[in-house]
Structure formats: structure tokens, C-alpha cells
Amino acid sequence: MCGIVGIVGFSPVNQQIYDALTVLQHRGQDAAGIMTAHEGELFLRKDNGLVRDVFHQRHMVQLKGNVGIGHVRYPTAGCDTSAEAQPFYVNSPYGICLAHNGNLTNAAELQGEAWWRESKVMPVGQEMAGVLRGYVETGRKLVADSPPDA
């Protein structure tokens, strides 16, 4: 099991997400991550370790914004590298992130999909990053195939 929190507020949410992840720490001690959004820009910090060890003051001041998500990881699959820390992020076309709890049980089936095979980077154990890329690619194709406004 993992712990996930998301906050939309009227003031910066970085400290609230940190506090929530600290409370959720029992849900995962392997890795922690926070992503925030401010004026169309995304800010990310994630690494292996406990919440208190991953985030220091220098990291917290960089996590700007009134919107954010956080994640603490309990590994049930994959490996223990910092690449597995969440949230996952794809910067194309505008930037999108994802935090999830659980295992992708149909990864082998999805690897046969065209959008999966076309992914430029697919590290072992990062199947959800592949799903996020597929979501982006599907959206991009839908927009490209849409008829122009009349």
C-alpha cells in the first residue's frame, strides 16, 4: 500500500502536503514525492527515503503553488531505485503528473499497444509512467484528429 494526498488551496500547499505525507508515512517508507503547480509551471521533488529525509527546507521553498499531490511508496513490485518514486511526470505537451497506489497487473498486455511501443523511454518497473505517456499520446491524437472550429 502507498499513501497519496492531493490538495487544491487558496495559499501554498507544500507544507500541508508534507504534513499529510508525514501522517501517511506508515503507508510507505520506501520513497516520497511532492509535485506542485504554480502559474502553469510544475515543481517536483522525489527520492528514496522517509518524508523527513527526502524534503529539506531548500526543497520545500522550491515547491511553489496552490495545487499539489504527494505520494509515499510501499514497494509491492518493481525495484527500490529513486526512479520508482512518485509522482510520475511527463512534460509533453503541457505537463501532467500521476500518483497511484497498487500494481499494474496488465502491463504485459499493454506493452503490445502501439502507444506503449512508441514510448521513447520505458525503464523497467515504471509501467505507470508508460500508462501516463499513453494517456498523453491518446489525448494528443484526439486533438490532432479533431475537426477545426467552424
Number of strands: 6
Q: How is the main sheet built? A: 4 strands, antiparallel
Give the amount of beta strand, in percent: 15-25%
Overall average residue pLDDT: 82
Distance between the termini: 49 Å
Task: Point out poorly predicted stretches.
Answer: none
Helix content: 25-40%
The tally of helices reads: 6
H/E order of the elements?
EHEEHHEEEHHH
Strand order, main sheet: write it out. 1-4-2-3
Which secondary-structure class do the elements indicate?
A: alpha+beta
Rg over CA atoms, rounded to whole Å, is 16 Å
**3D shape:** flat
Q: Which SSEs are present, and which pair or pack?
A:
Elements: E1 3-8, H1 14-23, E2 31-38, E3 41-48, H2 51-54, H3 57-60, E4 67-73, E5 88-90, E6 96-98, H4 107-110, H5 114-117, H6 127-145
Antiparallel strand pairs: 1-4, 2-3, 2-4, 5-6
Task: Give an account of the 3D structure.
The strands form two sheets. A four-stranded antiparallel β-sheet has the order 1-4-2-3, covered by helices on one side. A two-stranded antiparallel ribbon has the order 5-6. The radius of gyration is 16 Å and the shape is flat. By secondary structure, it is α+β, with helices and mostly antiparallel strands. It contains six helices and six strands, in the order E-H-E-E-H-H-E-E-E-H-H-H. The protein has helices at 14-23, 51-54, 57-60, 107-110, 114-117, 127-145, and strands at 3-8, 31-38, 41-48, 67-73, 88-90, 96-98.
